[in-house]
């Protein structure tokens, strides 16, 4: 539909249809953080298992719109198996792409598929949808002391 | 004689607005309504010619402004058939009106021995204020459950009311569109020795309202949902109740005397109108009420019933099992608020697609999260109709939903 191509890119719809890393992890050893989008009532859970400074596993539960669910799905792919420091870099870079204030100097980080979400910035009310999983991941990282 | 939708549309300048060359299809009136030129002009005219502070200055212009402000109160009194103008309290909005009841009446009357009865279909504004006071006072909050078709399940009402001091409920659900049996509920409350507080936000803009016929002790509603401006709401209560209550907000206007060791409150309504009130907004509210009255509240209700039947039939015929519309089918007990699930597509995505053709709906929890949990969904898409909507707007909604299928139909 005209005007929506920037928002509903094929890769976004693909992650929405077949979300990666859905489910839960046993806590402990994993930690879980709960995220809410107060605008629409969406609730998600991010399960995070950090071992030896590496994001061993990450899973997402809950429900949401195509933007929040696809963003969550791509996020899990972007941080799973990465050293914690790299996960933080991706987190910061993604938030910057969404126009959020992030402390520190921007780094050159390849966001890969996540770049498809850049179009969300043109639809300001949807930014909260796109960042929900990431904000929740940041809470989980805090929880894990990572 | 029914109302003439085309004439009414013409009264709302914003409906002439084109976005991307397409007309505006405003279906978010349960959230807030658009404003007719009668309201816009009344407020502008008042600011141009008559504006001055009220209740304190003695020059002629102030007296004129005061008259305009009090005239709005008299118009509101007549609109809801209240006995006395000073039973009408102007607040910031309906939320503040309900907070006033809880913080003033509730704080003075509720203790840990008591119970308050609410329903599962309440807006957060009729839940959270009670929970805030509950945290201090420790009273119980009970809930009237729902039937499967989204009406109040009154099977156990009398048992639920035992020991209840206040029964606070909506006259019409902002999510389900359900109209509740107000008189039956207020009678049951009184029989149990409780007061009855009616949240009229969704009801008053669409129906002739008579506080005596309702049997209510308190009625709260907002201006911005009945074509008036934001920034003003109404609390009505019986004079005797208001007289017995302690003040809510303190400050100027609400006192008759202030000393170093204390204060005396002013008479009604000033007692509950601390600070400079929403004077311009009151003028707008009065103009909005007179505008609705010029159309006729019975005609408004009939128009909405006709339009709701049309929209329900259209959506069900066109989409069959792909659309699930919440709330009762019986038009006698539902208003023109249609919350629905469409093909499992998330409401945010539905509303995003509808917005491409300027079809404005609300997607989300509608400030009724406990209800959404009971319905088993985090969010719904809600289309709500008002006097300026007609069948072409329902058609536009249905057409726009087809586009959502194009993108998300997998």
Task: Describe the secondary-structure layout.
The complex is a heterodimer of chains A (146) and B (410).
Chain A (H helix, E strand, L loop, with lengths): L9 H8 L13 E7 L4 E10 L2 E10 L2 H14 L4 H14 L29 H17 L3
Helix pairs in contact in A: 1-2, 2-4
Chain B lengths: L4 H6 L7 E2 L2 E2 L1 E2 L10 H13 L10 H20 L8 E4 L2 H16 L5 E5 L8 H10 L2 E5 L12 H4 L3 E7 L11 H10 L3 E5 L11 H4 L3 E5 L10 E5 L1 H6 L10 E5 L2 E4 L13 H17 L1 H23 L3 E3 L11 E6 L4 H9 L3 E2 L1 E3 L4 H7 L4 E5 L6 H18 L2
Parallel strand pairs in B: 3-15, 5-6, 5-7, 7-8, 8-9
Antiparallel strand pairs in B: 1-2, 4-10, 9-10, 11-12, 13-14, 14-17, 16-17
Q: What is the radius of gyration of chain B?
A: 22 Å
Mean pLDDT of chain B: 96
Question: How is the CATH topology of chain A named?
Answer: Sufe protein. Chain: A
Largest interface: A-B, 22 and 20 residues
Tell me what the CATH architecture of the largest domain in chain B is: 3-Layer(aba) Sandwich
Number of separate helices of chain A: 4
Report the β-strand fraction of chain B as a percent range.
15-25%
- Give the fraction of residues assigned to helices of chain B: 25-40%
Catalytic activity (chain B): (sulfur carrier)-H + L-cysteine = (sulfur carrier)-SH + L-alanine
Domain Aminotransferase class V (chain B): 25-397
Keywords (chain B): Pyridoxal phosphate, Transferase
Protein name (chain B): cysteine desulfurase
